[in-house]
Amino acid sequence: MRLKRTLKYMGQLFCVVTTAQVVFISALATISGTQAEIDYRILPAIMVTTFVGVLPTIMFVIGTENVSRKIYYLLVGIHFVLTTSFVFLSLNHFETFHRNNTIPVFLFFIAIYLTAHITAEMRTKKTIDELNKRINATHQD
Questions:
Q1: Tens of pLDDT along 14-43?
Q2: Dihedral sign, Cα of residue 94, residue 96, residue 99, residue 104
Q3: What is the pTM of this model?
Q4: What's the pLDDT score for residue 35?
Q5: Are the CB atoms for 21 and 50 separated by under 8 Å?
Q6: How far apart are CA 60 and CA 62, in angstroms?
Q7: Is the pLDDT score of 107 beyond 60?
Q8: What is the mean pLDDT of residues 86-96?
Q9: CA 1 to chain centre
Q10: Which residue from 3, 25, 8, 10 is spatially nearest to 116, judged by alpha carbons?
Q11: CB atoms within 10 A of CB 25
Q12: What whole-number distance in Å separates Cα of residue 51 and Cα of residue 44?
């Protein structure tokens, strides 16, 4: 069941990050004054980069439910390093990462990463609150 939820989350994350990449590339092209169109040949690179960036999320399936807060944040740190490595290796492979756009690409990566984790934490808190509400209602009856 946990694997199914994680795969569903990874699919949603894939869609969100792919869309965000297209928006970012368009914004970067517009700001830099270059051609403000996205060449259709870059779309496979975007999709592969997103896939390898979302792939490390599978590590949270491996028994992270009963770990301490320290271990959980250590796993998040490892996840961040893996995701960063995979994404930047993919960008380098497709030759879409250049010295002149290092800072904007890294800042955008950080923004997407933090947004995804904040959203996941909010979703988890909402689920926990609902479960606690049900438990309290059961005990009051």
A1: 888 888 888 877 777 777 776 656 677 788
A2: negative
A3: 0.74
A4: 60
A5: yes
A6: 5
A7: yes
A8: 86
A9: 21
A10: 10
A11: 19
A12: 10
